[in-house]
Protein 1
Amino acid sequence: MENISPENISGFVVGEGCFYVEFGGDKKYKLGYRVRPAFCIEVRHDDRDILEVVRSHLECGNIYELDFGRYKGYERKKWTPHVKYRVSNFDDINKKVVPFFKRYPLFGKKKLSFERFCNIVNMMEQKAHLNNEGLKRIVLEVNELRALNKKGI
Amino acid sequence: MENISPENISGFVVGEGCFYVEFGGDKKYKLGYRVRPAFCIEVRHDDRDILEVVRSHLECGNIYELDFGRYKGYERKKWTPHVKYRVSNFDDINKKVVPFFKRYPLFGKKKLSFERFCNIVNMMEQKAHLNNEGLKRIVLEVNELRALNKKGI
């Protein structure tokens, strides 16, 4: 196993990690919307070991081989297979991911994304997403987070 | 100034840094070739602060605004301006950059690139690049380093 410290991980996540919120219409939910904060890191297949270490530090999440969608048939397209580490269980996000990156702080723009992300997680912990007024406040934060996460080329 | 630790930096460099060697014909040199090990990190313009902190830790190198070549006229192309931190002075590489990342180790594939890079720097410190036989050994290492650094999509 690679020797990777928690501070190494926060530095790595500044470059490669993403804090985001899946938000969309879903009739299974009382207000008609699903809100799911998630954290992921995507790397090339040959750096999968890094993700295994991150998972062992964060004690949650799963690692997926990305051989579908835009990666399907990657050999023909000269693409490299990727792997993704992802946490979306709310308790894991709230009690493991968020505290980890508060203890081992991020920096740069990623720090701003993380602050917005924490706001959303806090609101959800207080059940704001279960009433219309709270859901509206969450949507505003989600839009701000999306703008921050938007990638330039 | 951002609060970024040395271990944060090595984690960040695993994602965003590059150890490479500029190698090419140049008649100014006795054997007709120039060999120049270099280290760089390129980020979006709005994360320039990170590079300033890296420079202050490594105590060498320069930061460049990339508004030329493929970045020229980036606004029209919906590109985001980038900035690059770069060290190419041999003494800085040998006495500052290499010792830093030996003290605060890298991981994943970047660690392998760094090991090749160190081999080349060591050979150059012993003046191997000034004789034909040594230059050939360096070229073999440079090719291995390039193969490791080659980006997939």
Protein 2
Amino acid sequence: MAQINEHFLQLPGAYLFSTIAAKVRDYRSRHPEAEVISLGIGDVTQPLVPAVVEALHAAADEMAGSATFRGYGPEQGYAFLREAIVQHDFEARGIPMSADEICINDGAKSDTGNFQELFGADARIAVTDPVYPVYVDSNAMGGRTGELLADGHWSKVVYLTGDAAGGFQPRLPEEPVDLIYLCYPNNPTGTVLTRAALQTWVDYARSHDAVILYDAAYEAYIQDAGIPRSIYEIPGAREVAAEFHSFSKTAGFTGLRCGYTVVPKELTAQTRDGRRVALHPLWVRRQSTKFNGASYLSQRAAAAVYTPEGRRQVEGNIAYYMRNAQKISDTLRQMGLEFFGGRNAPYLWVRTPQGMGSWQFFEAMLEATAVVCTPGVGFGPAGEGYVRLTAFGTHEQTDEALRRMVGWMTKK
Amino acid sequence: MAQINEHFLQLPGAYLFSTIAAKVRDYRSRHPEAEVISLGIGDVTQPLVPAVVEALHAAADEMAGSATFRGYGPEQGYAFLREAIVQHDFEARGIPMSADEICINDGAKSDTGNFQELFGADARIAVTDPVYPVYVDSNAMGGRTGELLADGHWSKVVYLTGDAAGGFQPRLPEEPVDLIYLCYPNNPTGTVLTRAALQTWVDYARSHDAVILYDAAYEAYIQDAGIPRSIYEIPGAREVAAEFHSFSKTAGFTGLRCGYTVVPKELTAQTRDGRRVALHPLWVRRQSTKFNGASYLSQRAAAAVYTPEGRRQVEGNIAYYMRNAQKISDTLRQMGLEFFGGRNAPYLWVRTPQGMGSWQFFEAMLEATAVVCTPGVGFGPAGEGYVRLTAFGTHEQTDEALRRMVGWMTKK
């Protein structure tokens, strides 16, 4: 008799962004004339840059010719892409890295979701609160999170809860943990970790034999030179951290699907009888069994991001979005609202005025201005009383949304 | 202290095709002048058809324009593709299907590997022997297969062992099983199930409350009208079967990555306390948490396979490969070798002469002819004494390989 994995049944049914979409549909049906602007979802709006588009056309032509057609690719991804990554994302920043340690994937979501499979069912996980839901939900499916409590926390998860007083910086856990998920620049708060702060996490992981899953999907948005763009800038990180990268936010690949995971050869975990086992061969075994590589076109497109033109063009897109972040920051300040992020990240984490709840503010702003934000409580209980705004809109939409928000807040 | 998932440690280290590649490399280093021809690996050689290439260029251009750029796609895939699939792969064959039941993926390997996550850790799995290794290895990682025995079987897996006398048809299990993996047309044996044979499996699953995971990746190669191309041609299958499709072998997408999984709304499994739970929402929850969709370009390319030109062109490619299958069949017959498949499948499953072992034959043929096959024992103990040949080569390579094989066998 086929029995289901009952861990699935405990998951909250509706995904945050589905609930938001339903509320927006309802609003539109009541206000068909309204021009709705979303500063909510983390999807990019600028088209692919010319260097990437050119690479896609060239790869499509290759696939059309007998002599140049490509079938199954190498298990860890094409060497031309892994070598470009090593050269530009690591060696150029003084970080030693081997192309063997790079595993190409179809986006950071897949790998941050799947990497937990390498660990035992009893692994104790630690996440920030608020947090990107994938880290928790994938472990819930794997049976590691215990019961879902009334406050939205899971009984077996250790929450590194942040708050305004502490600048939404994560606190070191007070109880033993095995896997620590860190995402910096952070989604949803837009905060970053300084080199010193990240060093304390690496030191913690080393002394407690924990593994850090470091999600660097937003590293391209870092403006300040002192902020680490990779955990491997920190001495000792290679033994305790895997790192997840994506071209989604760096180069607008949300529809194209390509990213990469770094699994250093020194990264190990333990067997029950105390032997150390390297995670790299385990991850390669996992991927070669349950994944068949990213599209050749996407891999060629990703390689184009590292060409001189590609880099310049992609930097132009990031500057485009960061101009939005600057404008949103200026406007929030002008409105007297407390917020985090927006300087080294495309996200702004805004405290709602007058102690309004996240959903209450979401609905009030939608009704009054037709502008959509993301309720902070959707990222965890510590997000209550906050909303997330994103810098991924067009300039025109962002300016118009801010104009409406100022009008509304002034009237309030 | 981070502990690994020890189930990974039991897996045989080297994947079959990696071992073959190493042996071929060794041969090449000893015979640098030899022109090696592979009839081994199941990768296609013909370029993408013009309709697909055109769709890739058009989609790349869309991604280059502000008004037509596409970011994150719908969670289950684009409606234009899901609707084309329903129309051509199901409704045109008289099979009712809703586009909601189609989940677009990046290839059948991912989903046949991941679908086991929906089931309890105690689920008893049944596979054919020989078998595509992904079904077993993914369950081994999930802890369902017990110990790896000396004969290559796993202690907790039920093997539906085939043999020449039974035409490599799978036998109904004699002990209770929960998940049954069936792949037809079969990889590696090239055999098919008649409608009556498939009906016995659907009936078995219904009466034993088992779920069938039906891998239809090679259905486009079926030539005989009486052979079912989908398990949903069989009455009662919607309640007991999920089905996996791929554009890899249908349309040469091994480098492009796109496929789809069918999860009918009626398909359920049980909770420990006896409630029935639909698998469709569980699978969508799994995918929306750990997957972010196939590339927009790949989805547009897949939709082009269903246009009138696309269908005609893709059928041309399949006919191209099946001409190889026919030639290989004719030659094997002429050489007096016993074999299966090659009529409704791109694979031929050949009994080695004079009781040679699979690897022994592989090495002897490589040394004598520089032609590569796949040792049958790599697909399971029941594959010992067989090798797999594929029809995916070019005509020129295939003819030359056959010429060499005939010369070698005549001398022997």
